[in-house]
Amino acid sequence: PDLIGFGASGKPPIPYLVTDHAAYLSAFISQILPDPNQKVILIVQDFGSLLGFNWASQNQERIGGIAFWEFLRPFESFADFVPEPSQTNYRRFRDEVEGRELIVEQNAMIERVIPNAMLRPIPQVEHDHYRKPFLEKRDREVLLRIPSELPIAGSPKDVWDLAVRYTEWLLESEVPKLLFWATTGRLLVQEKAEWYLERLKNVKGIFVGDGLHFLEEDHPHLMGRELVQWIAGL
Question: What is the value of pTM for the model shown?
Answer without folding.
Answer: 0.96
